[in-house]
Design brief:
mainly alpha, 6% strand, globular
Amino acid sequence: AAAAERFGGYLATGTDWDRTSVSCGLLSTHVERALRLIGEVVGTPTLPDDELERLRDRTLSEIRRRSVVPSSLASLRFARALYGDHVFGAPILGTPGSVGAIGRADVERFYRRQVVAAPMHLIVAGAVDPSRVLRLAADALAGLPREPEVTADLEPAAAHSSTRVFLVDRPDAAQTELRVGHFGVPRTHPDFTPLTVMNSL
């Protein structure tokens, strides 16, 4: 991150239930530097112990904060009501117990299983030469394994046959939080994108 900032840009990471992203924003004249930084983060992570502990503490603090925020309580209960015991029904930040139990070996194992070149997508925007970007990206990501060590298909969550209403009591809450929803079509459905646009409208 400091290396990107020295050139007026940024380096960021993010994760969700079904994806992890690494992004770097620099001037187009620094596209090679940006790809090298991404390649280093993705391909040769050091996973230092002190950073693991820092992130653990930060995550535990955020879990405690969300435990009293009405919007977070509503979203957590909504996910549990919709997905039940499915993995999507669990809080994405984990629980104090699960976060406390994660060790460096767990992180390394997850990395080996999930961070591979085969399902990766590279998105580059700006005044760059596409053929040059492809060459630079191939070099920057050359060390990644092509396929995961273990593949596992995620079973779909069970659909509901009736409408259900849940109430979460948050004493002294300033306002009411509502969540209404149901399962939609999978991302592989041919109408997924048009339906997403329609839903946004």
